[in-house]
Write a structure and sequence with these properties.
The chain has helices spanning 2-29, 166-195, 213-216, 236-244, 293-321, 331-343, 346-364, 372-385, 391-421; strands at 34-50, 53-68, 83-88, 94-98, 108-116, 122-126, 134-145, 151-153, 198-199, 224-228, 231-232, 251-256, 263-267, 270-273, 279-282, 289-290. By secondary structure, the protein is an alpha+beta fold. Helix 1 (2-29) packs across helix 6 (331-343), helix 2 (166-195) packs across helix 5 (293-321) and helix 2 (166-195) runs antiparallel to helix 8.
Length: 424
């Protein structure tokens, strides 16, 4: 169980961090201020600021997030009457605003009257013991220490998300799913290289196991099986089905070696029993493999295409059949699947990671508000209209989308709990 938990945390964290790094990188390229890049969720346990971004490690080691200025930023609102501690530089300009109520010897306590950290960049308030308000200019790279102690940079309007060109914003939104696709493809290619090749569905024989019926019968790697008991075959799956259907029964294989004329080979498959008590035959051969460089590289793209199209197909099929919770899986389902793949070894875990990464990328591209696909849809609407949606209306649309996603998550999670813990 401990191994499963660690694997689940690592897999889930890799998926989210790679996704968020896509948004982070292209936001930076677009001139959008990334105020925080967080690994994990919950309370902060470590932070480091560099080039305007605060990098944090948080207590719950699952996932992560990126705070871009002006979008999903959850910026702390400065309200009149708030007590602040501000730090000034030699030119009496504000370089730090502290909301954490911690005392600093060099900080100036002030009761806030008015502040503008987007356009005019100033803070106005009353210093204790004085009746006259004072106004300080705020430097563009000034920081705010939030109530939990996280220090982030202020966000003037020109470095906020909505100030970036439309195409750059679209690329920033697409970059998360794109990174998941790249990760999935790269992992599948890695698996192909580790395996030494890619299995193919033709009628050739792969590796022959020692002391197996196949070795005893004189079969060799790359032999072609043209027929089983007189019935022609052309694919590996057909050969497997024919052998499995004859446990302990002698069969006749029509075999061609190195393109020579076919010969008949008599062989008796070993009889094995599966978990359901059904007998099936085995002769001890592995499927054929294509070991070429192109096959290994193309494997990642082929697997990506198969997974992506199957997920899109599943989603679109729901317009005909209706919503089915069993078609989705949340964290509980991912954990249950992780428990299974861990038993099959490292390559199975890698394959699972690649599948989930592509899955996450595809789902995030669905045109649902609050997902990346919903943001891209709003970008397209803006491009067609020639102007962005009203921020208030966009906020309402996003809130509705977020509510629907939370409802879906609750339904899916409850359904997963019933399936995996209560067998319903």
């Amino acid at each position: 169980m401990f191994q499963t938990i660690i694997t689940f945390i690592i897999v889930f964290s890799i998926l989210v961090i790679i996704h968020e790094f896509g948004h982070f990188y292209f936001a930076k390229k677009a001139g959008i201020l990334v105020r925080e890049f967080a690994i994990g969720m919950g309370p902060k346990i470590f932070s480091h600021r560099k080039n305007g971004t605060t990098y944090t490690i948080r207590m719950l080691p699952i996932g992560g997030y990126v705070r871009m200025a002006g979008i999903g930023d959850e910026d702390t609102e400065l309200k009149p009457g708030m007590p602040l501690n501000i730090t000034l530089d030699e030119e009496q300009q504000v370089i730090q605003i502290d909301l954490s109520n911690k005392q600093h010897l060099q900080a100036v306590p002030i009761e806030l009257l008015e502040a503008d950290l987007e356009h005019a960049l100033f803070i106005e308030g009353i210093i204790p013991g004085s009746s006259e308000p004072v106004r300080y200019a705020v430097k563009r790279d000034a920081t705010i220490i939030e109530t939990d102690g996280t220090e982030v940079q202020i966000a003037p309007i020109d470095v906020q998300y909505q100030s970036a060109p439309l195409l750059k914003r679209m690329m920033t939104n697409f970059a998360g799913p794109m990174n998941n696709f790249i990760l999935g493809i790269a992992v599948f290619i890695t698996i192909a290289f580790v395996q030494g090749g890619v299995t193919v569905n033709d009628n050739r024989l792969g590796e022959i196991q020692p002391d197996s019926p196949a070795e005893t019968a004189g079969l060799r790697v790359d032999d072609k099986i043209l027929a089983v008991n007189g019935e022609e075959i052309a694919e590996w799956t057909e050969l497997v089905a024919s052998i499995q259907a004859n446990p302990g029964n002698e069969i006749t294989l029509s075999v061609s070696t190195d393109g020579q004329e076919a010969r008949d080979v008599l062989i008796t498959p070993d009889s094995k029993t599966d978990e359901q008590g059904n007998d099936y035959g085995l002769i001890g051969v592995a499927p054929p493999m294509d070991r070429s460089l192109m096959a290994k590289i193309s494997y990642g793209f082929k697997e990506f295409w198969v997974i992506a199209t199957s997920i899109f197909g599943l989603v679109f099929s729901m317009f005909r059949t209706g919503f089915q919770a069993d078609s989705f899986g949340g964290p509980v389902a991912i954990y249950a699947a992780t428990e299974q793949v861990v038993d099959y070894g490292f390559l199975s875990v890698l394959s699972f990671l690649a599948y989930l990464s592509i899955n996450l990328g595809v789902v995030n591209l669905l045109p649902i508000p609050a997902l990346d696909g919903g943001k891209l849809l709003l970008n397209l609407v803006e491009g067609i209209r020639g102007k962005p949606l009203d921020p208030e209306k966009e906020g309402i649309i996003t809130a509705i989308g977020m509510g629907l996603l939370l409802l879906l998550m609750v339904i899916v999670t409850w359904n997963d709990i019933q399936r995996f813990f209560f067998g319903q």
